[in-house]
């Protein structure tokens, strides 16, 4: 059973917002974070971390993606700690190749490749009070998904009513370019793995239990993740 810090089970959470909102603004950051987050600059120009890639290499990895339905801009890698750049790492696991393991304590998501190796992505995760752990699976996938604010959010923020019929896909949509919807026993848990174009959110606890990857990373993971893929959220 998925736990949410012991505060509520999945059934209760299903009536709560997919992503909580603390600001009246309808910009992407308020939709995703629900509170003002002062992160500051995470990167040090020219720095090379033993766990990271050189920024010049990362700039190529996170280059613009003009071929998308909504062209994705390049990531400003100077705003990221190099340890959150996508890379192949040693990762011992008994899980089958393709399994996704999320480590919220380290702000990393791993895709198991087998033979003691995994692809590691930097991530943002649930903020305090919204952390959970357990085993789920990918029950649905969507490219440039529609996002619909829940009734509770509309009651709190009447300006969100304009999206009651669904916010069309696009760069300003809270779910971004790709979304993997997480299920348990055939029921949607209200949690997703989604995409963001904001590098300053990577390595932070800001969501209501969802996990965010940079758009370029999410496109990579999405293409290699079929329906029914096992997802494990580790305790924080």
| The CATH H-level homologous superfamily | L,D-transpeptidase catalytic domain-like
Strand order of the largest sheet: 1-4-3-2-11-6-7-8-10
Number of strands: 11
> Kindly, what is the distance between the CA atoms of the first and last residues, rounded to a whole number of angstroms?
16 Å
Q: List low-pLDDT spans.
A: 1-52
Just give the CATH class: Mainly Beta
The residue-averaged pLDDT reads: 82
User: CATH topology, anyone?
Assistant: L,D-transpeptidase catalytic domain-like
Q: What kind of sheet is the major sheet? A: 9 strands, mixed
Approximate shape: globular
CATH-level-2 architecture: Beta Barrel
* Beta-strand percent range: 25-35%
Number of structurally distinct domains: 1
Question: Which secondary-structure class do the elements indicate?
Answer: alpha/beta
Secondary structure tally, helices? 5
Tell me the radius of gyration.
Answer: 17 Å
Secondary-structure element pattern, one letter each: HHHEEEEEEHEEEEHE
Organism: Methylosinus trichosporium (strain ATCC 35070 / NCIMB 11131 / UNIQEM 75 / OB3b)
GO cellular component, one term: extracellular region
Domain L,D-TPase catalytic: 98-234
GO molecular function: glycosyltransferase activity; peptidoglycan L,D-transpeptidase activity
List keywords for this structure.
alpha/beta; L,D-transpeptidase catalytic domain-like; 26% strand
């Amino acid at each position: 059973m998925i736990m949410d810090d012991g505060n509520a089970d999945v059934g209760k959470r299903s009536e709560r917002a997919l992503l909580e909102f603390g600001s009246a603004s309808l910009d992407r950051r308020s939709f995703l974070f629900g509170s003002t987050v002062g992160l500051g600059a995470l990167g040090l120009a020219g720095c090379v971390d033993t766990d990271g890639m050189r920024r010049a290499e990362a700039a190529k990895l996170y280059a613009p993606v003009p071929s998308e339905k909504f062209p994705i801009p390049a990531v400003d890698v100077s705003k990221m700690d190099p340890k959150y750049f996508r890379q192949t790492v040693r990762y011992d696991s008994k899980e089958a190749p393709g399994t996704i393991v999320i480590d919220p304590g380290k702000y990393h998501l791993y895709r198991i490749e087998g033979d003691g190796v995994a692809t590691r992505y930097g991530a943002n995760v649930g903020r305090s009070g919204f952390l959970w752990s357990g085993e789920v699976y990918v029950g649905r996938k969507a490219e440039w998904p529609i996002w619909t604010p829940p009734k509770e959010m509309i009651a709190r923020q009447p300006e969100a009513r304009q999206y009651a019929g669904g916010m069309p896909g696009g760069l300003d949509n809270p779910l971004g370019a790709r979304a993997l919807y997480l299920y348990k026993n055939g029921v949607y848990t209200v949690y997703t793995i989604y995409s963001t174009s904001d590098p300053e959110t990577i390595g932070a606890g800001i969501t209501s239990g969802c996990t965010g990857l940079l758009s370029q990373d999410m496109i990579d993971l999405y293409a290699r993740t079929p329906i029914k893929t096992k997802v494990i959220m580790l305790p924080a």
